Fold this protein.
Amino acid sequence: MKILLINPNISESVTALIEAEARRAASPGTEFTAVTASFGVAYIETRFEALVGGYAAACLAGEHWSGHDAVIVAAFGDPGMPALREAVPVPVVGLTESALATACLLGARFSIVAISRRIVGWYRDTVAACGLSDRLAGFRFLDTPLRDPGSVQADHEAALEALCRQAVEEDGADVVIIAGAPLAGLARSIRDRVPVPLVDGVSSAVRQAETLAALRTRRPAAGGYAPPPIKPNQGLPAPIERLLRGG
Amino acid sequence: MKILLINPNISESVTALIEAEARRAASPGTEFTAVTASFGVAYIETRFEALVGGYAAACLAGEHWSGHDAVIVAAFGDPGMPALREAVPVPVVGLTESALATACLLGARFSIVAISRRIVGWYRDTVAACGLSDRLAGFRFLDTPLRDPGSVQADHEAALEALCRQAVEEDGADVVIIAGAPLAGLARSIRDRVPVPLVDGVSSAVRQAETLAALRTRRPAAGGYAPPPIKPNQGLPAPIERLLRGG
Amino acid sequence: MKILLINPNISESVTALIEAEARRAASPGTEFTAVTASFGVAYIETRFEALVGGYAAACLAGEHWSGHDAVIVAAFGDPGMPALREAVPVPVVGLTESALATACLLGARFSIVAISRRIVGWYRDTVAACGLSDRLAGFRFLDTPLRDPGSVQADHEAALEALCRQAVEEDGADVVIIAGAPLAGLARSIRDRVPVPLVDGVSSAVRQAETLAALRTRRPAAGGYAPPPIKPNQGLPAPIERLLRGG
Amino acid sequence: MKILLINPNISESVTALIEAEARRAASPGTEFTAVTASFGVAYIETRFEALVGGYAAACLAGEHWSGHDAVIVAAFGDPGMPALREAVPVPVVGLTESALATACLLGARFSIVAISRRIVGWYRDTVAACGLSDRLAGFRFLDTPLRDPGSVQADHEAALEALCRQAVEEDGADVVIIAGAPLAGLARSIRDRVPVPLVDGVSSAVRQAETLAALRTRRPAAGGYAPPPIKPNQGLPAPIERLLRGG
Amino acid sequence: MKILLINPNISESVTALIEAEARRAASPGTEFTAVTASFGVAYIETRFEALVGGYAAACLAGEHWSGHDAVIVAAFGDPGMPALREAVPVPVVGLTESALATACLLGARFSIVAISRRIVGWYRDTVAACGLSDRLAGFRFLDTPLRDPGSVQADHEAALEALCRQAVEEDGADVVIIAGAPLAGLARSIRDRVPVPLVDGVSSAVRQAETLAALRTRRPAAGGYAPPPIKPNQGLPAPIERLLRGG
Amino acid sequence: MKILLINPNISESVTALIEAEARRAASPGTEFTAVTASFGVAYIETRFEALVGGYAAACLAGEHWSGHDAVIVAAFGDPGMPALREAVPVPVVGLTESALATACLLGARFSIVAISRRIVGWYRDTVAACGLSDRLAGFRFLDTPLRDPGSVQADHEAALEALCRQAVEEDGADVVIIAGAPLAGLARSIRDRVPVPLVDGVSSAVRQAETLAALRTRRPAAGGYAPPPIKPNQGLPAPIERLLRGG
């Protein structure tokens, strides 16, 4: 099985982190192509940055999806994901929705630990878009400026662990989702120091992508996720144009 | 007052329709700049087309917002709107959220009449994102291929009127929203032939944009709609880059 | 355009405050008739006082609506509003629903700052009746006895500003609604001292009333907001009786 | 135990119907005082009529509650009920909330059968105000003009029975609530001809009122249902004024 | 009237407590049969213990229901209740749903005070299953190991009273439900020391069971609470097998 | 990896069906132990049968879980699942929650196709318990008596396919879940004859169980899914008693 891993922002260091965690989580035989946005921002915290990242993800998906069995939009918040699910001929999953799918199978209520205060509004929208706000126990977040997205988990491990514990003790979380591609793998590192299951977006997305590919569900020809109808377009990058023609 | 009208798709005929309806609805003294996406599709029906349209809207907003008091994203479904609300220094409104704001002041439950079956999934997401799904009585839609977005209301006026009446009689709507920029003005034309108030996105958006500009609310410096934090970026079109630097 | 401003309680000082703020917010050419309840309480904090105020508002509406293009029920909590929307032949809006309409166009989640602890239960019902509880970040309220509704904003300005800031920092509000006619205008005064947009009920209602009048939506003849069916009645004040006969 | 039965509309024939059904449903030793609004309409179908009926109910409650152990607002839709719960020193219940309480103990989803199409909007608001919209399977209603509220169940028994059956077969109701004081007792008459439990508002309210009185819960001195704070008032009918002074 | 009181756990001391409170709350002439699970745990705090308790309750119900007019599952959380409502030929109520029914008639929002932190997850599920999460102000709970379920209210009365007051002052509860059969009667003891109505599960359930029996609603023959269809079974205890055959 | 497949009802033919589909869906190297309830009913359609099946599943889980990496409760409706998730030391998943997790990654709204009208009430509860009612487009169901659960898909294939198509065309489903262990595998057989993705509970559960086992999340020691506290018990089957002692 081949999975396309799309980092919708421009940080190669984060792509490397994502890819490493993906390899650790994958089934035997799963291979990855990891690609990084050629345009965009260092890391996405806002709806506007997600709009940019979603467009970058669409360009990458259009260019690279062929030859893969599934696509992962590897940023928490799932920029561009619902759109790509319509347009890409193979299954597409995002980190948030995959982490939520996993978390829902481990407990009734989950909290989300995030890398900044500013990012919470966008994440909250994403959880609501998944229809799961009623299972959200709350958010906990770092509240200091980030030096570098590639080193945030090393720089703040103790603080992040404390946030996880607060989510359990004060918010009543049964499960804690550690959000954001820059934190990929942290759930593994601090697993034994927090008393509830920790869920990681990258590894969840890898397994959910494998699942959808393995189940071989068909591409819809009707309903709200059928391919966009063919119609006039202009001025589009070739990969986008190709997706509009059916992939 | 000056308002920037952004058509996030490439149909000049629809831009003309939007601008004409905007002028009819505006207060004395309100002026419009109407711009059309230089890239994208003929009309947006899907999440993927909305992703493209949202990016086009962002490019147009970054290039043209300066000198205006408010910005309207003039496609139903509000492509790019939440993102632009963060990044553009003046108020930004979309057709859907504006139509919903108007409709909620006219009755308890609204139905939405739309130009195609395919478009409903995307619209439903948008209503949910506004938190108003519980006031949605239902959707009614044309179910025939569209010849031309610029002439859809002329081509299908009787069918659209019948859909409005069904929304009242069968779905129990107190108000009917006629959705989609290509239908701009239809609410006025068939006003006396449907027994409940009809709401139009373009005219609602014009009035809501005027309202936000007139109330002179401040640009947020905190919360989930503050401007995106300044951080490294690369490869972006100048208008997007400028919005990321604060507008 | 002529708008009828109804203060459903007996405080002339609050009527003056409302009218002054309404004039500041209005479009050129908009004129107001401001009327005060001849019976009722000094200010409404509870469902029971709202029942009384709603009846007073209905009497005033029936007596004075004619010759106006829209009616504003100028108390937060919107006493009598849904009922008047059915019975008065021109558009009717309340302060709460109008403030919510404005707030929803400025951010995802709003908090409400109020003049007393006791008032919160009633306000919460009102937000729920608008279907917007999911966007409510929380309430903040003064918790000291009020000397006089006419001077509450002068007496407590610093405390009210602090509540607004707490709503942003602790509740994660994107927007703060300053609730209650006695606080009309405070949003303007402290605008630069709170880091998110502040929304005022009176000015929002003035603009929304102007919008509905300008859009010239029809009076419903069907649905849940059509005029009440004609039927036997007795013992009613003339203005109420007139509304029951169709206005 | 003594219960005050308030008919918030002016139809003596409906008061008689209510009182007869109340006596049938009551525990041994329960006595009723049944009072009819001296002003208002023949029967309440709309929010505006409910505003009038709520005020009439408040006048009757203020005048007559003393010497009773509980008060029933005996119109479906519960006009004035939340307000009276604050202001009357003994428990107050409405027909809708009582019928919902009973229905929720008999199945997961309930439908409501009503006497007119026009009444549904108001009833829907009431169910939502009780927080129970998610358990509502739907509405079914007579769609012919009513000759007389006192004889509606005799005039339309077969049609009403058919509506109940449709609620089960087409809407999937586990329980059917027969709504409206004019239908008091119908649930008993057609009990064996509909395959699910039928719930009647009057008998439910009698039992719930007895329950609250028997449980001797205290009158709140805090929270959102404490008595309204004492403050200046003017121009009020004596019974209302007395309730504002604490009962 | 005869009511079967089922304690789904093995603590005879709690059965005695339940029965005593039931007798205090009952109408004249109501008699009780109180039975205790022959297998299970000392008190139920978790979903797994509730599964065991639900099965024990089913065995007791099948064995003892005959000759009774209604059945009460006398543990908060209502183990087995929805299942028994289908299978037992007379009305079945649980403590939680009954307490919620009562609480909803006394105020808009209720809090729940519980005997342990661990129990909250299960209780939250139960409130959600009743569709009433939106009226839940919050949970407050003892956070110390329990010596004995039979003496928990005597051992912790002051702490429980303090939790009730916090629910009012900090969570904004209009009503407080004191949860768990081991706390039966506490609402009466501390009634005058908490400023809002306190609701007790056992007494509420007794009154609701009497109400359902008195209203003589029919057993459903359709809908989701009709008796389970007859089909092959094996290996079941006689009381369960009898319920599967129709009671 | 070893997975325990629990059929909570007594039909060996259905166990065989489940096991065959599980093997088809599994990753290389995954092995199954399939066990069938020794007591219970032929197939579960109601809450009461689910109570029995849940208890049977708990007995089987306690007896057989050791030596396995995950447990599947292989009946749609997930009888006993939330309880087993607390008590079994390895991950436990149900067919419904697994199918929902898969469906949510394939579209916005799903419909559920079921084997009988009677089963819908119970399934609806289960979807609500997962917090996903807002994404449910509707139910479609066979409405004829079933000859044999083991042959239902062969007996009714054309009817089931038609129900799937109606879910798409009339209810607007993006995805259709084919519910009930007796239909295991049907999604594969009719995959090309329905225009949207079809989701099967058994194969989804196999993949989700593998995912949870592979992610090696820890067993909770806090929160609402920690093991039940140790406390006195009596009269329990050994497998249940062992689970109460920690597994």
Q: What stands out?
A: Chain D has a mean pLDDT of 96. The longest strand of chain D covers residues 2-7. Chain D has two domains: 2-94+204-244, 97-201. The radius of gyration of chain D is 17 Å.
